[in-house]
Write a structure and sequence with these properties.
The complex is a heteropentamer, with one copy of chain A (422 residues), one copy of chain B (317 residues), one copy of chain C (263 residues) and two copies of chain D (354 residues). Helix content of chain A is 43%, strand content 14%. Chain A has 422 residues and is α/β, with parallel strands linked by helices. Chain A has a five-stranded mixed sheet with strand order 2-1-3-12-6. Chain A has a four-stranded mixed sheet with strand order 8-9-7-10. Chain A starts with a helix and ends with a helix. Helix content of chain B is 75%, strand content 1%. Chain B has 14 helices and two strands; from the N terminus they run αββααααααααααααα. Chain B has helices at residues 6-55, 74-81, 83-115, 121-127, 130-133, 136-147, 153-160, 174-202, 206-214, 219-230, 232-248, 251-256, 270-280, 284-316, and strands at residues 58-59, 69-70. In chain B, helix 2 packs across helix 14, helix 3 (83-115) packs across helix 11 (232-248) and helix 8 (174-202) packs antiparallel against helix 11 (232-248). Chain C has 263 residues and is mainly alpha-helical. Chain C has a single domain, classed as MetI-like (MetI-like fold, Orthogonal Bundle), CATH 1.10.3720. The radius of gyration of chain C is 22 Å and the shape is globular. With 354 residues, chain D is α+β, with helices and mostly antiparallel strands. Chain D has a six-stranded mixed sheet, with helices on both faces. In chain D, strand 16 and strand 17 form a beta hairpin. Chain D is globular, with a radius of gyration of 24 Å. Chain D starts with a strand and ends in an 8-residue tail after the last strand. The chains are: A alpha/beta (422), B mainly alpha (317), C mainly alpha (263), D alpha+beta (354). Chains B and C meet through helix 1, helix 4, helix 5, helix 6 and helix 7 of B and helix 1, helix 4, helix 5, helix 6 and helix 7 of C. The structure holds adenosine-5'-triphosphate (2 copies) and magnesium ion (MG) (2 copies). Chain B: Residues 1-21 are annotated as: Disordered. Chain B: The chain crosses the membrane at residues 27-47, 93-114, 126-146, 189-209, 230-247, 286-309. Chain B: Keywords: Cell membrane, Membrane, Transmembrane, Transmembrane helix, Transport. Chain B: InterPro entries: MetI-like, MetI-like_sf.
Chain lengths: 422, 317, 263, 354, 354
């Protein structure tokens, strides 16, 4: 009985707010206890210093802090939550998972009073779904353009001037393309990458994924044009490294750029650290950074902020909230910027001149916030990524025209929305 | 009545009772020996399996806020009509057919080769074990390094020898990736199949080859008419067991394709699809239904195997 | 000649990965590999073997692999012996059942297994993994051992009965030593399977009991793909099994070849 | 030493519809110190009987008594007997000394005592020099001796042998047979010996139990078995060359026409139709003219000191053993004389001696 | 039909330091239509010789001629011979008819002709009713016949048999032996027959080649082999019971003291020390008083019509075959008389007949 009771399908309490307290979690009191945190392996700073600082500041003990491989975490969380496991208190999250796990009732909703006032909007979006806040961000992340100044110079370009429009970008990429070297590369080898790259061009062309009622509108004229232009990088202009189609993650792309054989990439902020790192052919002087050139708008980008959320079955929710809040504090955020090359989640740290000094990319980031930066994390993100990756691959391989591909994807998405958005 | 003539009753009962005591002892021994293993298997496989069957009867999506509802065979009906399942099934059949087919064919040929006496044969047989010892995860990483579109050694060699005009994006095209997967899997499963075939070859009496030579059969005919028919047992066994294993392949796909079964679902076999549905889509009922349907498919092979097995046991006697 | 081709086919992929682990990233991870032997470095090995986040999973894998093998062999021999020597109704079904279990997909069992293990407090523990692997590997072990035990001549066991051996002594002193090559082959198979498993370890462990394949796969992070380290980890993961296979090759080949593998 | 009594011992393998009766109601007594052979063709239930005596198989009916005590419920190791198997059943993973001493070790005999007895048994069988070898490195004859030594070292009340010589080549078989006989004379333990070789049974035994299809055909001394076979089966099975057994029909003056030919024999007052048995070595052959012949020589098999001549009587073949390298050749017309032969007569249907 | 000549045929297995010489310089001729046995103990090179004749093994030296033509580099199937293997080597995956017809099919004989010949061979060997069965469902005797039928159906010039009877039980063996003899008489093809059973060789063969350790010991008719064994080895190997072979020393008047005992024999003009051979069935025994005795009876082995008595001469054992159920018993003092026996004498060192 104890076994099946854990995940009995007939049990109405299996869904919704099944935690220790009903309703959103408010901060207060002086929480105590022990925490178990399951994070991805993006940040080293917590283990290095933040946990110790947190323990001495709050008296809460972090019993275990585990870094899992990002690719494995979803499965692990899904198993934990489905079994109503209470051993893990804090889990890492991002826009997609926030929506997915939040809607499933597996994450503890936070009261507005628990949210720091100076949070940057995209970072807050990464931990919210349909107006409810399910966690607090740990760092912000937005894609920007990086280019190799050495290659640009060799191609006879003005190495310090970023291409500002799509046409300029294509021209620059063309100039930097030569045998054994491509002007541009991206990562569309896996579903998430396919989605991100599509979303990016869609936004760059002024389009959007959904309207207010989550009706898919990405098969609009802007969408079709954007996808066509993206495809042409590979098929017409031949500036995109064909290996992009098999590159399955951002780090491969980062390495590729650092190897010095790729002119331009649109990548997450960690690219700066990789490109200026020891193993790289580039240096701080030869890495160019700027806004991603738009097609019909000046620029746009996609968001990749991450955060922490609280397991709804946790028995230490107050203590967990204390950890979430501690991570957003200035000292921790500053370290994340300084030591790891991610953007901070609060405007206070973002505007601090120290940040831009430590991480030049921060300047670009601030500019980016003027333009559309979205992610559209939804409960159906996995399914959408998957189906979109199939269509995108067909488009890139010339099997399906962009319009047909998008129409097909949109109608499938509509079914998904209907299923999950009740 | 009972007290009238107790002696014969006793006399008849005692040996029977004695004998049965001996039998009880044997029985207790047999149960004691077999039970722990069976209990573990039944508990740790039987319970989850039953649970999976149970789940497959529900519309059990973790992502919707609605509680699971019983749908009977609804999920199975949906499986039948799902184009994604059909595509995955075809992919799986292709994968299984080629890995198993190529694997068994190569295994027979290699086994025949290694059954001939030559210097260093033992060494070759030992090295044969190398792919077997490579864990699936490592296998995935390994072939990814080899077939990578920009840094892969196959491209370097192909370009160097002038076979390719340009880099081939093996892992960017669904068909190519499937072929790489097939290649990787075949490489890995070959040693086991080879040993199986070697075992079968050792079981063929040497004299019937001599008899065939005297009877005028050439080398090729001896292979076709003596070796192959006599390997029927091991071959059938290899076919079926390997089909089971091929349908279950997960780790290699996962690592080779960065956990996606891509590109464009190109390597999403039925088992991988069940994984995606269960763990990415969190649609547990449907995922279970897909997996169980696949299992049933495999069990059809098992039934077939049972028949073959019975045949083989008779030969042994 | 043919043998040469065969050897290249068998060994080249693994050797290439080994090269990957020995050369700095810049040498091989480029369009044209640079195989200058002066570039060879053991740095990657030094780094991984000095890193507790790698060594600990390695130790876990070793513990889990060895324990699973031992448990499987002990329980499996008992069960296999009974199946090989006793005739009883349902025996054939049971044997076929052992094989049929091979068809069961691990995927759907993961969640219920997780629940089960947690109910017994064994989630994310090494014993939990051992028990789970045992359940999955035992059927195959039993199936194979039945074949090997059947090859032991019954007259030897009768001789042992006359020599005043108990049933258990017969198994231990006669059947097991005689089936030794087959048992060695089976044990290696059990070890390889449990040492190499990825999926179950991924789902059933978290921080405390992660195993080597999980750690190795984790080199493929979202923002931290390290091919040299992955190749190094790959070599390190494969080498113990290779060594085992080499050490036990006499028995494996004899066991699998002469004992006529039945599973 | 021990006396073994079998009382209506039965054995059925399997159950219900699959039941295979292997042995039917055997009743006889093996005297203390006797050497008794169970003789019969393959599948007649010899091994089954021996296994029941040993306790390796359970009896399905009847009872077995050793020295007057029922042993049905006694485990084999409690019956104090030693078993020599057809395939020797040596433990391949132990050396010869360990093989010989294993039964003692399992019985918790003290180490030095084991040592002593192993040496002694090995000395007796002349295998002291191979005590350290594994069985697979021994020749067939040596293995055979190790199996014997293993039995002897135990010093049991009863020895059971299941065709111990059948895997040896002819020379070795003859040699070991003699040794076995001497050994029995020395040790004097009750011995039960299973064989399908009538020569072995004849030379070794004090008494022979001839079996056929699970039934006891005759139990008696070799002399009785040879000279007064109780059934047609025993007559055909014992003696080499095989006894000529031919259907015969009584005609004039109490004489029988053998196999419908012109060859007649006397056979006292037997029924009108019977099977007549004549041993080849008790008959004689004479070359005669065609009109006097009983038959024609079909095959001549020289055996060195004697030759077997097979005569075609027209409707049947008749073998006669002639001395030396035969002077007969294929096609000769011959006459058979049976003056010095004893004529055995068996009932046509029951096969019993009349 | 065919004549087979062996000229200094040699065979060495392995190479260099691992070389194992299996057969040394064999030279003899197997006449057209003859039935020749290769007789010798296990491992003496019989199978090797046969395989070389068949072409299954290459010769290492010398040459083999069939009907005068060298066949060294002819494949087995070109030599027009049929081979019957010890383990029959039937194809387990074909039914009996396919087994018999396989050689014909491989030689592209027309279907109906194959059919006809298979039927014919099956009829001859009385296995028509099992033509549709698989070998594994046949009894040993039936398998044996299938193997023979397979050879016969081919109608080759030469039949080669490698111990075809050794897997059969005694009765079946005797029976098949007779059949084989009749078959040879009918077909008349040259046959080479490997066996380690001297009785088989004696009864079947026109000529026997006795081999030992790869050497030819004697090649001759059964009569010659039995009555004038060329070497001590042949003397000991042929004849049952085994010839008594004892070292003897010349003493007074050309008589030899056998085995250092009081038992003397005459042996013409042989060297001072020799090995003397006496066949047990040519000697006689008499009970005497203790002072006259040559030895003491040690074992008596009744065999039905005869009994073998083993006499202990003190330094050696001496076997005498006595007629009937022996009147001797263990412990009797006896005298051996050899009046009717031929005395064989062999050189002590070379083993050659003197
Ligand atoms: N375990 C068994 N199950 C069923 N039937 C059996 C079993 N053992 C023996 N039999 C049958 O019992 C009969 C007697 O067998 P047994 O082994 O005693 O014969 P045997 O006289 O020893 O023959 P052989 O000379 O071939 O050893 C045979 O018909 C055999 O098929
Ligand atoms: N393939 C081989 N390699 C090496 N030595 C061999 C080989 N075949 C046979 N021999 C050796 O050659 C010798 C003769 O062997 P062969 O098989 O001819 O003996 P045989 O007379 O047929 O004996 P048996 O009666 O046991 O069959 C033996 O000493 C044997 O060990
Ligand atoms: Mg028997
Ligand atoms: Mg041979």
């Amino acid at each position: 009985a104890t076994l099946s009771g854990c995940v009995s399908p007939g049990d109405p309490s299996a869904k919704g707010s099944a935690g220790a307290s009903d309703g959103p979690l408010k901060p207060g009191g002086k929480p105590a206890g022990e925490l178990t945190i399951l994070d991805d392996n993006t940040n080293k700073v917590f283990q290095a210093s933040a946990i110790a600082a947190f323990q001495s500041a709050t008296g809460i003990k972090v019993k275990t802090y585990t870094m899992g491989n990002f690719n494995d975490l979803h499965d692990r969380f899904a198993t934990l939550f489905a079994a109503k496991d209470s051993t893990v208190d804090v889990v890492m999250t991002w826009a997609g998972w926030t929506a997915e796990f939040g809607q499933a009732g597996w994450l503890q909703e936070l009261d507005q009073t628990a949210v720091p006032k100076d949070l940057i909007k995209p970072a807050l979006d990464a931990v919210s779904w349909r107006g409810k806040v399910y966690g607090l961000p740990k760092f912000s992340s937005v894609q920007t353009m990086f280019w190799n100044k050495t290659l640009a110079k060799q191609a006879g370009l003005d190495a310090d001037k970023a291409p500002a429009t799509w046409d300029e970008f294509v021209a620059a990429a063309k100039a930097m393309t030569r045998p054994g070297q491509y002007g541009y590369a991206c990562d569309i080898g896996n579903p998430a990458g396919a989605y991100q790259n599509f979303l990016r061009v869609l936004l760059l062309n002024g389009g959007d994924m959904y309207d207010q009622d989550y009706k898919p509108i990405f098969n609009s004229e802007q969408g079709v044009e954007a996808l066509t232009k993206f495809k042409e990088l590979l098929t017409l202009h031949k500036v995109m490294d064909p290996a992009s189609l098999q590159t399955t993650n951002a780090s491969d792309l980062g390495d590729q750029f650092a190897r010095g054989s790729t002119g331009i990439v649109f990548n997450w902020p960690f690219q700066y650290a990789v490109a200026t790192g020891k193993a790289s052919k580039l240096t701080a002087q030869t890495v160019g950074n700027g806004l991603i050139p738009g097609i019909s708008v000046r620029s746009a980008s996609i968001d990749g902020s991450e955060g922490f959320a609280i397991n709804n079955y946790s028995k230490n929710k107050e203590a967990a909230l204390a950890w979430l809040q501690f991570v957003t504090t200035g000292t921790v955020q500053q370290k994340i910027v300084d030591q790891e090359g991610w953007f901070p989640v609060t405007s206070t740290v973002l505007d601090d001149p120290k940040s831009a000094a430590a991480l030049p990319v921060v300047t670009t980031y601030k500019e980016t916030t003027k333009y559309a930066t979205k992610r559209w994390g939804t409960p159906w993100s996995n399914e959408l990524d998957q189906l979109l990756s199939v269509q995108l691959n067909n488009v890139m391989n010339g099997k399906t025209p962009p319009r047909d591909a998008l129409n097909s994807a949109a109608s499938q998405t509509e079914a998904l929305v209907k299923r999950y958005l009740k | 009545m009972a007290g009238q003539d107790p002696a014969p009753v006793d006399g008849a009962a005692t040996p029977a009772r004695r004998r049965s005591r001996r039998r009880t002892r044997e029985l207790r021994f047999a149960i004691g020996m077999a039970a722990p293993a069976l209990v573990i298997i039944v508990l740790l496989l039987g319970y989850p399996m039953g649970y999976a069957v149970f789940m497959s009867g529900f519309d059990w999506s973790e992502k919707t806020a609605t509680p699971p509802s019983f749908v009977g065979l609804g999920n199975y009906a949906a499986v039948m009509h799902d184009p994604q399942v059909l595509a995955a099934l075809l992919r799986t059949l292709f994968f299984a057919a080629v890995t198993v087919g190529a694997g068994v064919t190569l295994a027979v040929l290699i086994a025949v080769l290694l059954n001939v006496e030559f210097r260093g044969r033992t060494l070759v047989r030992v090295l044969l074990l190398v792919p077997w010892a490579v864990p699936p995860v490592v296998n995935g990483i390994m072939w990814k390094l080899i077939f990578d579109g920009s840094t892969g050694v196959v491209n370097a060699i192909g370009l160097g020898l002038g076979i390719f005009h340009d880099r081939v994006q093996f892992l960017a095209d669904p068909t190519w990736t499937m072929n790489v997967l097939v290649f990787a899997e075949t490489w890995k499963l070959l040693p086991f199949l080879c040993l199986l075939m070697l075992a079968g070859l050792q079981g063929i009496p040497a004299n019937i080859y001599k008899a065939a030579r005297v009877d005028g059969a050439g080398a090729w005919q001896r292979f076709l008419r003596i070796t192959l028919p006599n390997l029927r047992g091991p071959i059938t066994f290899a076919l079926v067991v390997q089909t089971m294993w091929s349908l279950k392949v997960f780790d290699t796909i996962y690592v080779l394709t960065g956990g996606s079964g891509g590109p464009a679902e190109g390597t999403t076999t039925i088992n991988f699809l069940a994984y995606l549905v269960t763990f990415s889509n969190l649609d547990r009922g449907y995922g279970a239904a897909i997996a169980i349907s696949a299992t049933v498919l495999v069990l059809l092979f098992a039934v077939f195997w049972t028949v073959v097995l019975r045949d083989r046991k008779e030969v042994a006697r | 000649m043919l043998v040469g081709v065969l050897l290249v086919y068998l060994l080249a992929p693994f050797l290439w990965m080994a090269l990957y682990s020995l050369f700095p990233a810049s040498a091989l991870q480029s369009l044209t590999p640079n195989l200058d032997p002066r570039l060879i470095t053991l740095g990657s090995y030094r780094r991984l073997l000095g890193d507790s986040s790698f060594l600990v999973p390695m130790a876990h894998s070793a513990i889990v692999g060895i324990s699973t093998t031992v448990v499987c062999m002990v329980l499996g021999s008992g069960c296999a012996y009974v199946l090989a020597r006793y005739r009883f109704p349902g025996r054939h079904t049971l044997l076929v059942g052992m094989l049929t279990v091979q068809a069961v997909p691990v995927i759907v069992l993961a969640v219920p297994l997780f629940v089960l293990l947690r109910a017994f407090g064994m989630y994310d523990t090494l014993p939990g993994l051992v028990v789970t692997y045992t359940a999955f590997i035992l059927p195959l072990v039993v199936w194979m051992l039945v074949g090997f035990f059947q090859e032991v001549p019954p007259s030897l066991e009768r001789a042992a009965v006359i020599d005043a051996c108990s049933r258990l002594q017969i198994v231990w002193r006669i059947a097991v030593p005689l089936a030794a090559p087959g048992m060695a082959a089976t044990a290696v198979l059990a070890f390889i399977t449990s040492w190499s498993d990825f999926f179950l370890a991924k789902v059933l462990t978290s921080g405390n009991a992660a195993t080597l394949p999980v750690r190795t796969a984790a080199f493929q992070g979202l923002f931290a793909m390290d091919y040299t380290a992955a190749a190094t980890a790959g070599v390190i993961t494969a080498v113990p099994v290779l060594l085992l296979a080499l050490v036990a090759q006499r028995w494996i080949i004899r066991g699998l070849v002469e004992g006529a593998v039945k599973g | 030493m021990a006396q073994i009594e079998l009382k209506k011992v039965q054995k059925t393998y399997g159950r219900g519809r699959n039941a295979v009766p292997a042995v039917h109601e055997l009743t006889y007594t093996i005297g203390d110190g006797d050497f008794v052979s169970l003789l019969g063709p393959s599948g007649c239930g010899k091994s089954t009987t021996l296994n029941m005596i040993a306790g390796l198989d359970e009896v399905s009916g009847g009872e077995i008594l050793i020295d007057g005590a029922r042993v049905d419920d006694l485990d084999p190791d409690k019956r104090d007997l030693a078993f020599v198997f057809q395939d020797y059943a040596l433990y391949p993973h132990m050396d010869v000394a360990a093989n010989i001493g294993f039964g003692l070790k399992m019985r918790k005999v003290a180490k030095p005592e084991i040592e002593r007895r192993v040496r002694d048994a090995a000395r007796r069988l002349d295998i002291e020099h191979v005590l350290g070898s594994r069985p697979r490195n021994l020749s067939g004859g040596q293995r055979q001796r190790v199996a014997l030594a293993r039995a002897i070292a135990r010093r049991p009340k009863v020895f059971l042998f299941d065709e111990p010589l059948s895997n040896l080549d002819a020379l070795l078989r003859d040699q070991t047979r003699s040794e076995l006989k001497m050994l029995h004379a020395e040790l004097g333990a009750t011995s039960v010996y299973v064989t399908h070789d009538q020569e072995e049974a004849m030379t070794l035994s004090d008494k022979i139990a001839v079996m056929s299809r699970g039934n006891l055909e005759q139990y008696g001394t070799p002399y009785e078995i040879y000279h007064r076979p109780a059934t047609r089966f025993v007559a055909s099975f014992v003696g080499k060359p095989r006894m000529n057994l031919l259907p015969a029909v009584r005609s004039e003056r109490g004489r029988y026409a053998v196999g419908g030919s012109s060859f007649f024999v006397d056979a006292g007052d037997a029924p009108d139709r019977a099977v007549v048995g004549l041993r080849p070595e008790e008959c004689q052959l004479d070359k005669v003219s065609a009109d006097q012949r009983h038959g024609v020589v079909k095959v001549v098999e020289p055996l060195g000191n004697v030759s077997d001549v097979i005569v075609d009587l027209g409707s049947a073949l008749f073998t006669v053993r002639t001395p030396g390298f035969s002077s007969f050749s294929v096609g000769d017309d011959v006459r058979i004389s049976v003056e010095r032969a004893s004529v055995h007569c068996f009932d046509e249907d029951s096969g019993l001696r009349v």
